[in-house]
Task: inverse folding
């Protein structure tokens, strides 16, 4: 479900926080859905469990996730409300900056980049 | 995690070691609470193994002191030693014994020994325990050394380059076991390695030694957030290299400049962009790049 790059300059906990936020904002993770346990996620991705629990705690503090007593972390009822278009667009900003910077290095025009985005979109995931 | 002992597991105060007039380690100060996984990084000769030797009481400091579980490292009582597991860089295996024999011998020295854990790991790590140690490969010897250090379930595990000879598959399995231990808030790991990728997965804290001095002691996440590479693009060629505060390294090519900085705060970007009349792209750096930048 998550794509984590431990070697990236973006700390693992932040990668996780941003992905959960995106999945919840986009409605892919619906309220009440259980997330994998800290241990499960840590072992699957071979990352430090403290990193995972740090991400979960931050998301809990933000109201995106909630911890039911003795149960797994779940998507919070309120936090699961689909974010507005503007909020969802804003979450894509870091990736967009990278794509635009790379396109400029390649000397692509705006129209050429947009054409590529259309083409990629058409190919599905 | 509220019931966890908050007393530091390791305390280091003004620690120094001089060998034959040469300062190997100087003025090291550390305090490590339980439940942490510390990665110890440094170039060859930076003092990593010396620090571990002093911590474990294998050598005496020339200045200052260090303690484990509140006991001076130079005079660790047996009860404290029984709570420590150590995997040395140069293993201390007995070539004429089989793996099973050496494990049996070490197990007999400990009051508690998790035979089931050791057997399970030997099986999972495909370690032939019936062979003489002298016939084992470098990687197999490392696996056996780790088993010897894990069997008594130590509260403090000190690893000096434990995985350098392991292939990628074995290393991943080893890391998963390390992470299993990391999940226990009562257990503490100190892990010295050049395999930066392993530390990015396992460590939540870093100690970086540079020429015998502590160059960094803090959270890995905080280090990644504080050392970044700025890509500046101006409308015309840079006449001089932009002098940014906390710059570690800078280079200019025409109207593009790259500056690696430490103590970075995202709010600085706007001010710098205005000051230099440039566009700024902030590139987060992986630990290997950060390590290189700190040693530039």
Result:
């Amino acid at each position: 479900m998550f794509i984590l790059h431990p070697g990236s300059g973006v700390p693992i906990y932040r990668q996780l926080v941003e992905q959960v936020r995106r999945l919840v904002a986009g409605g892919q993770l619906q309220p009440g859905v259980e997330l994998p346990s800290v241990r499960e996620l840590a072992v699957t991705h071979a990352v430090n469990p403290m990193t995972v629990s740090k991400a979960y705690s931050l998301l809990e503090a933000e109201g995106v996730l909630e911890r039911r007593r003795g149960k797994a972390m779940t998507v919070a009822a309120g936090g699961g409300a689909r974010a507005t278009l503007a909020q969802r667009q804003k979450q894509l900003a870091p990736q967009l900056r990278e794509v635009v910077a790379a396109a400029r290095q390649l000397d692509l025009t705006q129209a050429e980049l947009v054409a590529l985005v259309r083409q990629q979109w058409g190919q599905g995931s | 995690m509220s019931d966890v002992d908050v007393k530091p597991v390791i305390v280091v105060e003004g620690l120094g070691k001089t060998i034959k007039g040469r300062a190997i380690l100087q003025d090291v100060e550390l305090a490590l609470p339980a439940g942490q996984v510390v990665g110890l990084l440094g170039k060859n000769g930076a003092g990593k193994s010396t620090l571990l030797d002093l911590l474990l009481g294998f050598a005496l400091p020339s200045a200052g002191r260090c303690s484990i579980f509140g006991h001076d490292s130079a005079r660790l009582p047996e009860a404290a030693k029984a709570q420590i597991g150590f995997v040395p860089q140069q293993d201390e295996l007995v070539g004429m014994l089989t793996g099973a024999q050496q494990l049996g011998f070490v197990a007999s020295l400990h009051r508690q020994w998790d035979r089931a854990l050791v057997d399970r790991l030997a099986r999972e790590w495909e370690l032939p325990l019936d062979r003489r140690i002298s016939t084992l490969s470098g990687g197999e010897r490392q696996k056996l050394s780790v088993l010897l250090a894990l069997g008594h379930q130590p509260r403090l595990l000190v690893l000096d380059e434990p995985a350098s000879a392991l292939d990628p598959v074995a290393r991943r399995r080893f890391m998963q076991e390390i992470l299993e231990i990391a999940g226990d808030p009562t257990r503490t790991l100190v892990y010295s390695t050049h395999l930066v990728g392993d530390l990015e997965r396992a460590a939540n804290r870093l100690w970086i030694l540079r020429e015998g001095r502590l160059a960094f002691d803090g959270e890995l996440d905080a280090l990644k957030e504080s050392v970044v590479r700025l890509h500046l693009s101006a409308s015309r060629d840079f006449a001089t290299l932009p002098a940014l505060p906390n710059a570690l390294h800078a280079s200019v090519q025409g109207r593009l400049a790259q500056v690696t900085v430490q103590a970075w705060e995202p709010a600085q970007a706007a001010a710098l962009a205005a000051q230099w009349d440039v566009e700024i792209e902030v590139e987060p750096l992986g630990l290997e790049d950060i390590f290189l930048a700190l040693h530039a």
Summary: The two ends of chain A are 14 Å apart (CA to CA).
